[in-house]
Design brief:
Layout lengths: L2 H51 L5 E7 L5 E7 L9 H11 L20 H9 L6 H6 L4 E3 L4 E2 H6 L13 E3 L12 H14 L2 H17 L5
Parallel strand pairs: 3-5
Antiparallel strand pairs: 1-2, 1-4
């Protein structure tokens, strides 16, 4: 194969990737606008419930690591008491990345987490706390489907073999969420992130979105 032919092939592949990314972005924007229009009133009700249930703001802002390792402020409905300590979570993630099986009662999440409020527990089980991330999608910081946006200290702990997960935008839902959610460990999640990055396509994104709704309704592995 000549260098000219090779360059043409690379250019064509990049063009296909660009078109696919534009389709994915357009789909994310259209869906996000539709969600905001349909769920604006329920989101306002949830925000009010969060503030009535415990002292503090309705929205929780937290720095997360996105595409190419760039940090951004992610939005969620607040599910914890203000100024909660995350020492137990850091210890749990570290143990999981060292290969320990930390599951209790079928879940890898913290058991009896006293930081979580009453409303917060309900929001987490239904994943309704994630709804404000639609704002991050509209701002181009997240996609509908992708790896889970991780915390900065989590990213620092991830082994180098999993850094490819940062080559795409993080998502509101993803392969991890429809494959077991909190029943999976951090290492399980990272392996699924890599699988998604290798196989990702618009069709795969649509399949994951379609699988997300029944997964949430069944509350598979949620805590």
């Amino acid at each position: 194969m000549s260098d000219h032919t090779f360059d043409e092939g690379v250019g064509f592949a990049r063009s296909i990737d660009d078109v696919t990314e534009k389709v994915r972005r357009t789909m994310s924007l259209a869906f996000s606008v539709m969600v905001v229009l349909i769920l604006l009133l329920p989101m306002l009700v949830i925000a009010a419930a969060v503030m009535i249930d415990s002292e503090g703001p309705a929205l929780y802002r937290q720095r997360r690591v996105g595409r190419d390792g760039q940090t951004f402020v992610m939005f969620k409905f607040r599910t914890m008491k203000p100024n909660s300590d995350d020492a137990r979570l850091r210890e749990l993630i570290t143990r999981e990345l060292n290969g320990e099986d930390t599951r209790e009662e079928g879940s890898s999440k913290l058991n009896n987490d006293t930081r979580v409020t009453r409303i917060g527990r309900m929001l987490r089980r239904s994943s309704l706390d994630e709804l404000p991330q639609i704002l991050n999608v509209l701002r181009g910081q997240m996609a509908l489907v992708g790896p889970r946006p991780c915390l900065e200290w989590e990213a620092a702990l991830f082994p180098a073999e999993f850094h490819a997960r940062f080559s795409v935008r993080p998502g509101i839902t993803g392969l991890w969420q429809v494959s077991g959610r909190s029943a999976l460990t951090t290492l399980d999640m990272l392996k699924l992130d890599l699988e998604y990055v290798r196989r990702r396509s618009v069709i795969m994104d649509i399949q994951i979105l379609l699988r997300t709704v029944p997964t949430l309704l069944r509350r598979n592995g949620a805590r």
